[in-house]
Amino acid sequence: MTTQHYATWADAFTDTTRGYHHPHFVRAETTPAGGIDFEFSPFDGTEPEPAMPEVPTDTIPHGSPDREFLVRMYRAARERWEEARTVVTEPETCARYLTLAGQVLADRALTTDVIDRGTEWEPRSYTWECRGCPGLGDGFQYLADAERDANAHAEACRGIPVP
């Protein structure tokens, strides 16, 4: 029987729990304070929420250091996943209306733009911004409401930005 020697205890846990690692897991390292840091490949936030798989107790018993290693790994994976889900994305322009000033001056840059700033957690994600004046729309739950309000603003806006 051969005894395996590991450089660190994190290496030992990584090896003994190999079949149960999170798919984004890269490696674990011990910290100078005696803790452990987990490294994962990047999350984009669209993956399913990390959840520890069912691990047979005859393979890795409850209360064992190996199981605790896995619990900490999946907790760290969930934290990284949550961070990726809360990253703010670029707002998306959904509609654009030429303002009254833009029509009169034939300046197609003077528009009122309907923007989706939201995430799936933001119930009032649609708004509008005017490029002619400092006008901003309130948050709207529905795109059609934001479009209607932006169009009404654009029809009346005579604003021209000051250089």
What's this entry about, in short?
The chain is of the alpha+beta class. It is built from four helices and five strands; from the N terminus they run αββαβαββα. The chain folds into two domains: 9-85, no CATH class; 92-156.
Task: Give your account of this protein's structure.
The protein has two domains: 77 residues, no CATH class; 65 residues. 30% of the residues lie in helices and 18% in strands. It has four helices and five strands. A three-stranded antiparallel sheet has the order 3-4-5. A two-stranded antiparallel sheet has the order 1-2.
The sequence of SSEs as H and E is HEEHEHEEH
Structural class: alpha+beta
- Helical segment count: 4
Largest sheet: spatial strand order? 3-4-5
Q: Indicate how many domains the architecture comprises.
A: 2
Helix content: 25-40%
Oligomer: single chain
- Rg for CA atoms: 27 Å
Give the termini separation: 80 Å
Main pleated-sheet profile: 3 strands, antiparallel
User: Could you say which overall geometry the principal axes of the C-alpha atoms support?
Assistant: rod-shaped
Mean pLDDT: 85
Quote the beta fraction.
Answer: 15-25%
| Structure summary, number of beta strands | 5
Give the uncertain stretches in residue-range form: none
